[in-house]
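Much of what follows relies on a compact textual record of a protein's fold. A record is reproduced here so that you can trace the correspondence yourselves:
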Amino acid sequence: MATKKSNKENLKKGNAVKTDWYKEAVVYQIYPFSYKDSNNDGIGDIEGIISKLDYIKDLGITAIWFSPLYKSPWKDYGYDIEDYKGIHPSFGMMEDFDRLIDECHKRDIKVIMDLVVNHTSDQHEWFKKALADKNSPYRDYYIFREGRRKGDKLLPPTNWTSSFTGSAWERVEGTDEFYLHLFTKEQPDLNWENPEVREAVSDILIFWMDRGVDGFRLDVFNLFSKVYPFKDDRTKGSFQKGMPFFVDGPRMHEFLKEMNEKALSKYDSYTVGETYFPDNDEAHEYIKRENKELDTIFHFEHLAADNAGGLKYIPKPFNLVQFKKGFFEPQKRYFDDAWNTLVLENHDQSRSNSRFGIDTKKFHYEASTFLALVTFMGWGTPFIYQGEEIGMTNSDFGSMEDMRDPVSRFVFDMATKYGMPKKLAFNFIKTGARDNARVPMHWNSGVNGGFNEGAEPWQPMNSNYNEVNAEDDIASPKSIYRFYQKLLGIKKNNKTAIYGRTKEFNRKNRKVISYSRTDENGRLLVIGNFSGKEVKYEIPSDFNPSRLKAILTNYEYMETARVMTLRPYEAILFEEAIGKNK
């Protein structure tokens, strides 16, 4: 494989040329379980993904981020890794993955893998050896501590809690020791203070880049560094005890610089980090070009505009002003010395057209295309989640039995434990559940939406695949997929759309989102009605309406005027040339 040979030569010579290819990229996320099941066993697989690469290429995608394909017991559906250098047999063999890389590269599509190294699976050989022998060197790969005695009770070392509720400490059977797990008990945290752990992570990165992988998404990376010594968290009002001791820890920057120096910098690689409730100043430091740590991170503040404090299971009325603050602030903060990402959905978020007060049945096409235009014309690299390009919606779960995500089950158990009626708890959970994003892809109106040939899918299908599916959408005169094609064509080929500075207008307007993008090539203006009713909007005084040309809209375009009547979820992209736009 030419790519492998090139990467290995670059590594040995230390002459890899680092480029900024990600700045002009459009990334598509695939959740392998749910994309395409080629062998009819109910689980998506690599062969199924390969069969849809032309569909992805035609959309305008230039890179694919794959959620974990590694060998795993699937307690958290791949985010609990048992073998970092192996492919789960349900997805395929290593040879299949190598072919996937080749087929992507033939289509000029980069390959980005998920890297989950805050924790491993409890089935990983490292952890098995750590449990089997207290004197094993692998014991120091993880974080073990003695429990605390209180009378005849043995308590965990601290009062820290897991993200999935309950204590963050699990007792080792037959001992007085506990191990730390910030997520499920089957996901023990790695000890990043141990240089052997960090060396192992660099080795994993090199292993995959030598196979041709172009980049990595780092899962909850800002939890790597903990604050020592461990103590009880006395902070009041925190939904998760212990956060001051494990979020943005004191050695985070050191660890990222080391990983970059030892592995990532030797290849033309790209990194995007998922942060866990980060401090904004620290988040900026992670991606400053001069710091040589990560290339980008994800920001989700705008997605907290319809829930309480970022807790997706506690809905609240949608606040557009809050959405705009979370959307625009990173574009301002990072413009001069970093790079941004643009995201509405991923495997952890419910479907965007089923959020933000949207009546998705009434405004399915309008809302789906509106969200795409006002989001992805911002400054940064677009990340599009599978099914977003055809307007897939939240699912119609009938009961908790339809849900597979351990988080949904933990939250349901906790809510009912504290007295919430089961029906009410279920209704809260199904709105914000990660399960909504993980329902199998709708390819057509046939059996199981074309996901497979009839085997029961690993997660129940959304019954609306008869109305919402790729085949019918592409053929429709109001095609969301074709709107995305046009939008992404502009995003990739218009330099102002890629590099132009963002200027926000009318932050306090609770119905309209509006901003411009400006560079030496020209100016673009985005206007969108974020409501289900007509609204009047005056074009910002920065612009002369007679010089604006609408180059993309999700309605039949009407004449530009200083005061425009915007229809429900209408979005318009205007161009005003002040130079030759390349």
